[in-house]
Amino acid sequence: MARDNLRDRAVWQDVSGPKATTAEKTFYGVFQAAFENTEFRIRPKPDEFNNTYAKVVLTPEVLQQIHNPAEEIRRHGFNPDYAIDNTLTEKKLYVEVKRQDGWVEGGKRSDGRGNAHERSCKFFTPGLLSLLREKGGHPDTVIPFWTVFLGGITRDPCRVREVTFWYKGCEDHFFFWRNAQDELPLLQHFNEKLKGLLT
User: Fold this and answer.
1) Contact 123, 72 (CB under 8 A)
2) Between these two residues, 131 and 110, which has the higher pLDDT value?
3) Taking the model in full, what pTM does it have?
4) How far apart are CA 123 and CA 130, in angstroms?
5) Which domains does the chain have, with CATH numbers?
């Protein structure tokens, strides 16, 4: 990638980072208020997966082919944005909030750059699905996560088609929160399609 492109990318990330943080705080605030005086709670950055990858055992053959630092890798994992817990059943649903720009009226197709929506698909991998089910207290038939999209991506004709295709058969597990000022559709989606997984 050319130096100019890298410079532009760094600037774009500086702008998108604060927007993503604001989006997540808004999501958190909605559910924190909705869960008040109920058996449900929302936790930011759940830490139960902090060392997931550090515990992966590699074969001696693989270890011979990779860099093995002198100092043991003690912390290597991931953190979903949130966990929604039912304190009575101890079941958990893991949440990713992805804010991304998109191609909307008056813009150009390249405005839909970014790969937050692609990164959301990591939770469909066999290893993470199994682990999220185990930690969330779910059987193999349950998808134990929910991805909420915010920003221009929710109206981008290309990105909406991509996400809709990728999540085919799992439509309950993603939501395009097109108007972040209106919490009712978000809460309705959770109550109608996901809350029952935690009971």
Assistant:
1) no
2) 131
3) 0.85
4) 10
5) 23-45+80-198 (3.40.580.10)
